[in-house]
Amino acid sequence: MAEHQGASRESVVDAARAILVAEGPDAVTMRRLAADLGTSYQVVYSRVGGKPEVLRAVHDAAFDDLTAQVLARGEAPGTDEHLHALTRGYLDFAVASPRLFDVMFGPATGGLTRDAAMRDVERESFRGCWVAAARAWLDVHHPQRPRGSAAPLAWRLWSATHGITVLHLAGHESPAGDPRTDLATVVGLLLADPLARR
């Protein structure tokens, strides 16, 4: 195969993500990436770095994609429907790519260490997805709320959604037999008492 010296950083990350989604993180090797891209190990390394850096780049891009996907839902911010759509989008993202979701939220793998830079990416996604949506909803329904109310509501929405998602991915049947139904129930309960401080 002719060596393709023009392999870009984006193409390396895309190739790594495709391998990871199909086969898991152990299948992402520099040799495999070079072969799939028709280039050399040295070119792959020069674009992104070694395997830990490649997995970090996949992690970061996945959070960008998650944020974009859940924000692309058509419901108007500030509505109950918007929050329900956000939780469904999160579940759909995880179900579509469980191995990718595991790299985003699971234990470190492939030499990857969840350091401060990765946590910054994760926090930015949390703010973009959950805090912004919670603030918009509170602006409509509780405009006179105490300061700092959006982050606690966002955390409850995210942690409930993430918990149901992880349990679903692990094969646990939800009470309703449908995780979307249970998500809707939990979101409804949280919105019934959105300013709880306990």
Protein architecture, described:
The chain is mainly alpha-helical and 198 residues long. The protein folds into two domains: 1-49, Arc Repressor Mutant, subunit A (Orthogonal Bundle); 59-192, Orthogonal Bundle (Tetracycline Repressor, domain 2), CATH 1.10.357. 69% of the residues lie in helices and 0% in strands. It has nine helices and no strands. The chain has helices at 9-23, 30-37, 41-47, 51-71, 80-96, 98-105, 116-141, 150-169, 179-192. Helix 2 packs across helix 3 (41-47), helix 5 (80-96) packs across helix 6 (98-105) and helix 5 (80-96) runs parallel beside helix 8. The longest helix is centred in the middle third of the chain and has 26 residues, at 116-141.
Number of DSSP helices?
Answer: 9
N-to-C SSE series?
A: HHHHHHHHH
Low-confidence stretches: none
Main sheet: strands, sense, barrel: none
CATH topology of the largest domain: Tetracycline Repressor, domain 2
Protein name: TetR/AcrR family transcriptional regulator
Domain HTH tetR-type: 6-66
Keywords: DNA-binding, Transcription, Transcription regulation
DNA-binding region: 29-48
